[in-house]
Amino acid sequence: MSWNPFSRSSSSAPKKAVLSRTSQRDFEREVKRLDELEELTRRLYKDGKRLTEANNAVAKSERKLSQELLSTALCQTEEKFKWQINEWDSSMIRMDMHMTDRNVKLHRTVLEPLKKYVSIFPYAQVAVKKRDQCLQEFQKCQDKVSKYQERDRTGQNAVKLDMAKKTLGTAQADFTSQNDALMVDVPKMIDTRTDYFQPSLEADIKSEVQYTTEAVKVYGELSNLMNGHKQQSRHDYASLIQQALTELKALSITTD
């Protein structure tokens, strides 16, 4: 806030505070919670964008591997190996499509709602600023009334006091309206955050499940093609890899 009528460091402390310290602390606590919610929402939005970028990078990187292998001389001379890499490349095309679908859903069900939610906070900040301005005006009017009350009760001072009291009444009504509205709306906005984010969370989990299911299907089919539809366990694959490594180490170019 730009001005705090309760600050101990104020060189011209008001003679009569228009708002209790407790009420001011309660308001500042709610504003702090609102600021924390805004910061969290903005971080979630940025992290969601980074996730879509990372998803795209993973899909493109794996496709790049198959493309580079297809351009090697080995794929031009070894038909079986070329066929395997072509099948892998085809699988990567399918996975790229599924990843694109995943990112589209992530954008629609998570990023767009978060962006809309973030757009609300500037309006809340304007309302808080207006409330602070009303509080300053309220305090200013109260100080003026106090000043005229301390003066001699001459006719001129009585007229000024009467006018100051009317202005004070208007300022008090404006502040009360702004303050009461914020003390209702800010906690309500904070308390309903879970209801707002819950559908996005559920949609994202379902999207991830769908993508993972398709990935298992694509890679399962590719695995079956690679080993001739033979059922092989993780141990079988490990044994095959170890056997290939042993044969490589036995070559003269790899011996010490």
Automatic annotation (TrEMBL):
Residues of the BAR domain: 12-235
Any one annotated GO CC term: actin cytoskeleton
UniProt xrefs under PROSITE patterns: BAR
Subcellular location: Cytoplasm, Cytoskeleton
GO function term, MF aspect, one: lipid binding
Skewed-composition ranges (Polar residues): 1-13
GO BP annotations listed: actin cortical patch localization; cell division; endocytosis; plasma membrane tubulation
Primary residence: cytoplasm
Keywords for the protein's UniProt record, in alphabetical order: Cell cycle, Cell division, Coiled coil, Cytoplasm, Cytoskeleton, Septation
Region (Disordered): 1-24
Domain of life of the organism encoding this protein: Eukaryota
UniProt-listed Pfam families: BAR
Protein name: BAR domain-containing protein
Organism: Elysia crispata
Lineage: Eukaryota, Metazoa, Spiralia, Lophotrochozoa, Mollusca
